[in-house]
Design a protein that fits this description.
globular; 8-stranded mixed β-sheet
């Protein structure tokens, strides 16, 4: 791939299925390079494969489609433009038998936009979540500019969030609206200084379920609960016992059980490291009841991005991370042995089910996603969203690597090789998280670097997800040293088994935790010619206070203050002598810019060849969702750096 090929990538989101299972609708997102923005339209897809997919809407950005249970209506979110009030999505509905979409909510209802629609089972109302700004903030008064807003009095550790900004003065609340009323008027169901998320309806439309943290001490732990209330907000009741981190509740078919995702956080409520997110159940009539875990804790970890729990007549669908794969499983209601619905070298990243049909958005190593239908044990690929990119012939298929660390531990990864006989310079690419996985999906990073002539080695060392909780927790309190052993082993394996790789021209790069490890390796190894450390945790001591998650993340991963100081990548800055490009974003609140500045100054003062590439207006997700022009500028700078120091031309 070339950097400009980002404009050819088409990424389908989670699909919605009509009640009869015959039609799927999916939002497909693309980069509009000329407009320097993201566009998204809805596509309608027959699930029998008899006809090709076709565009259904032509808005600027149409997302989050949802069929009404009676099949007559499609609700979705539409942002009318790329900036200002027009960029804030609002709720629309359109008839499925033809006709124009009708706007339901407006910027007067929701100045910051509405959330994904959830139909009541009787198809008369829609529930959703939307942030409610304090009066006088976030443009609610046109005569008050952001710099003129009053000061914020902050008393909570959870007062901001990367990619969002301050959150203490715009809490997400649950709303219900009748979309067919002549003048729709959303009703606010929840209130108070609490965050609310993931609303769902009971089968008889009499109750709403949602998640929130309302307990004493919620500012100092990661626990939450599932609640239910009536659609007008009356009779709120806490179902769970405040022992888990929770999300995405959904009622079972008979309404007697609520299923949800949860993860253990230990007695402190902060012990989150490598804890698997599993499927749980609790009676719908419970009051602070003890949930039952339905998936095995050590081996099964939720890995899809559907955004809601999908309940079928036979069980609950669950995307399970597994060695770079996301398998789609059907978990029985009683928690018995899950059944594989979709497997193989791919990832089921979003799905829906109706009338015996399952449709999933599925990625592979050379595809950003296609819709696949499964019914009666038969699979059908329904779309060809990636055909334009595939026709370029520039996408490389990843090759698996299986290495062994010095202590005998297996290390799994991939190699993306460029065309030609070599010898190819090599890039060791390290993922963030660290509890995340590389795998069978189109990774534009690896593809662009391979397209420029570099062999890309990437993998899932200890600390990653997808290989069990013990694998993920193995690096705790010694992140750098323990991760480095596996990364070196993976690189050694690639060099030993692929003679077209050049062991004398190796660079290392990564973002977030990958940036931590890049800086660490630069100070603890002499095998790399140059490095690129991006949006990194370079100094856990200051990260503790400056990051939106630092107040709990730093101690849980890096240890007490003494360990954080001694095992910090910045502690070895005096041993870094290779050229270093540092990439960061001005509005990164996950790994704030001071993390980059401290490393930059430390290296500059010692005379090390160092550059700082700083992006305005971007947060931690620049490489994945930043402005298209910034993403391409980033690629151009990276390729220039590697050309200067590894010389492919």
């Amino acid at each position: 791939m070339k950097p400009a090929d980002l404009g050819l990538v088409r990424t389908p989101g989670p699909p919605t299925l009509s009640p009869d299972g015959r039609t799927a609708v999916v939002a497909v997102t693309r980069l509009d390079l000329e407009a320097d923005a993201y566009r998204a339209q809805l596509w309608t897809v027959p699930t029998d494969g008899a006809e090709p997919a076709r565009p259904l809407t032509h808005g600027w950005s149409d997302q989050a489609p949802s069929f009404s249970p009676d099949g007559r209506w499609l609700a979705f979110l539409r942002a009318a433009g790329k900036s200002g009030k027009e960029a804030r999505p609002q709720l629309y509905v359109m008839p499925t038998d033809g006709g124009d979409a009708r706007q339901v909510t407006t910027v007067e209802h929701h100045p910051l936009g509405a959330g994904a629609p959830v139909w009541s089972p009787d198809s008369t109302r829609i529930a959703y979540v939307a942030r409610v700004p304090d009066e006088g903030r976030y443009g609610t008064r046109e005569d008050v500019a952001p710099e003129q807003e009053p000061p914020r009095r902050i008393t909570s550790l959870r007062y901001r969030l990367d990619g969002v900004g301050f959150v203490l003065d715009r809490r997400p609340q649950v709303f219900v609206v009748d979309p067919f009323h002549d003048g729709p008027a959303p009703v606010q169901v929840t209130s108070g200084d609490f965050d609310h998320a993931d609303v769902a309806w009971s089968p008889d439309s009499s109750l709403l379920a949602f998640t929130s943290a309302r307990h004493d001490g919620r500012d100092r732990d990661l626990r939450g609960d599932v609640f239910v209330c009536t659609p007008d907000g009356k009779d709120p009741r806490q179902l769970t016992d405040t022992t888990l981190s929770v999300s995405q509740p959904a009622f079972g078919p008979d309404g007697r059980t609520v299923y949800f995702l949860g993860s253990e956080v230990g007695p402190s409520g902060l012990d989150f490291v490598a804890r698997h997110t599993g499927l749980y159940a609790v009676p719908a009539d419970a009051a602070e009841g003890t949930p039952t875990r339905l998936t095995p804790g050590e081996t099964h970890h939720h890995g899809d991005s559907t955004g809601r729990t999908v309940v079928t007549a036979d069980g609950v669908l669950f995307g399970n991370e597994n060695r770079g794969v996301v398998d789609l499983l059907l978990v029985p209601f009683d928690g018995g042995e899950p059944r594989l619905v979709l497997g193989g070298q791919r990832q089921a990243v979003g799905f829906d089910a109706a009338a015996g049909v399952v449709v999933a958005s599925v990625t592979t190593g050379d595809s950003a996603g296609e819709l696949v239908a499964v019914s009666d044990g038969t699979e059908r690929v329904l779309t060809a969203f990636g055909s334009e990119l595939a026709r370029t012939g520039r996408v490389r298929v990843p090759e698996e690597l299986d290495a062994t660390a010095p202590d005998g531990y297996p290390v799994h990864g991939w190699l993306v090789r460029p065309e030609g006989p070599g010898p190819h310079p090599v890039l060791l690419l390290i993922h963030g998280g660290p509890f995340a996985q590389y795998g069978w999906t189109l990774l534009d990073e690896a593809q662009v670097y391979a397209g420029a002539g570099y062999a890309v080695v990437m993998g899932n060392p200890r600390g990653s997800s997808g290989y069990g909780q013990a694998h993920g927790a193995a690096i705790r309190y010694d992140v750098g040293e323990r991760s480095a052993a596996d990364l070196h082993a993976l690189l050694d394996n690639a060099l030993a088994t692929r003679p077209d790789l050049d062991a004398d021209r190796i660079g290392v790069m990564g973002g977030s935790h990958g940036g931590f490890m890049t800086t660490w390796l630069a100070g603890h190894s002499d095998r790399f010619r140059a490095a690129i450390s991006e949006r990194a945790v370079n100094a856990p001591d200051s990260f503790t206070g400056s990051s939106d998650i630092g107040w709990y993340f730093a101690e849980q991963y890096y240890g007490d203050a003494d360990l954080r100081a001694r095992r910090s990548p910045l502690a070895a800055a005096d041993d870094i002598s290779i050229p270093m490009l540092i990439i960061h974003s001005e509005h990164d609140w996950r790994c704030p810019v001071e993390q980059a500045q401290r490393l930059f100054v430390a290296l500059k003062l010692r005379g090390v060849e160092t550059e700082l590439l700083l992006f305005p207006g971007e947060g931690h997700e620049l490489s994945r969702s930043g402005l298209p022009s910034h993403r391409i500028a980033r690629f151009d700078a990276i390729l220039d750096w590697w050309e200067r120091h590894l010389r492919t031309s």
